[in-house]
Amino acid sequence: MSGISFNIELLGMPELTAVFEQAPDKVVQALATAIFDEVNNIFNESQMQVPVDLGTLRSSGQVDPPEVSGASVSVTFGYGGAASEYAVIVHEDLEAYHDDGKAKYLEDPLMAAEAGMSERIGAALAAALG
């Protein structure tokens, strides 16, 4: 599967730091849930943009569950599997015509979601942690 990785670094949040010190597992789990939800929203938008010929590329898309290692959380998502030979080609070929969908079907939703992402994740953490 072809995936996208991004890091979120929370700075200047003494309240969150205090909560983290009191209940680190709860904070990391809340962060994992918030990031997983954010990635699912991005993926759902990509599903509306991915080109469809026979449907193999669209159906190859997936979001893996969060992986937690200490205070680090990662979520892998993308397209590949049975479509791995052409998923990147279709994604990158800006000259190709598609009846349904378009190139940059994963990158564009990610870039659109970038605005406000830290605020949405922060709000989800605040709601989860009270």
Please characterize this protein's 3D structure.
There is one protein chain. The protein has 130 residues and is mostly helical. It has one domain (12-125). 51% of the residues lie in helices and 10% in strands. It contains 6 helices and 5 strands. The protein has helices at 14-22, 24-49, 56-59, 87-92, 107-114, 117-129, and strands spanning 2-3, 62-63, 67-69, 72-74, 77-79. A 3-stranded antiparallel beta sheet has the order 1-5-2. A hairpin with a 2-residue loop joins strand 3 (67-69) and strand 4 (72-74). It is elongated. The termini are far apart.
What integer value in Å does the Rg equal?
A: 17 Å
- Fraction of residues in H or I helices: 40-55%
Low-confidence stretches: 1-5
Whole-number average pLDDT?
A: 84
How would you describe the shape? Answer: elongated
Sheet/helix structural class: mainly alpha
Distance between the termini: 36 Å
Classify the beta-strand content into a percent band.
5-15%
Total domain count: 1
Number of strands: 5
Instruction: Report the total helices.
Output: 6
Run of helices and strands: EHHHEEEEHHH
Give a short account of the largest sheet: 3 strands, antiparallel
